[in-house]
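Hi,

Apologies if this is the wrong queue. I'm a grad student, and the batch job for F-box associated beta-propeller type 3 domain-containing protein from Glycine soja produced an output file that my downstream script rejects. I'm not sure whether the problem is my script or the file. Here is the sequence I used:
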Amino acid sequence: MGFGYDDSSDTYKVVAIRNLKSKRELRVRCLGDNCWKNVASWSGFPRILGNKGRFVSNTLNWIAELSTTNQYAVFSFDLRKETYRYLSLPVDVDVDVAFDVPNIGDYMGCLCLSHNFKGAHLAVWQMKEFGFKNLGLC
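Support response: The file is valid. Your script probably expects a header line. Output copied below for reference.
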C-alpha cells in the first residue's frame, strides 16, 4: 500500500496492490471518494515485494520481482497519470533473487536503494533525477 499527493488534481491518493492467488490488482482511491478504482490487473509476475510504497516525485515505488529475467526492478506508479512502469536497478547490483532483496527508500526527496551484499558490505544508490536509469552509487 502507498499514500501520496497528486499535485495536478490537489488530492491525496491511496494505492493498494493486492496479491491474490490467481492475479495481482492495482487499485486507487482518492481521499474523499467512496470507492476504489481498479487501475490494472495481471496474473503471475511481476510480484510486488514489501508493504509500503515510497513516495518520490509524484510516484509511489516498490521493489518488484520479475519472472522473465529473475531480476528485481522498481515498480513505479505515477499518481498524476495513474499508470505504472518499471525502472531497472543499477547494473552493479548483483542480487540473488532467492535470498537478497534490495531495500527501497527515499533520501532528501530522491529514490534510494540499499543492499547488504551477503552481510559483507552495504551499498546505497540514490536516483538524483527521477526516472533516469542510472542511479549514482553513494
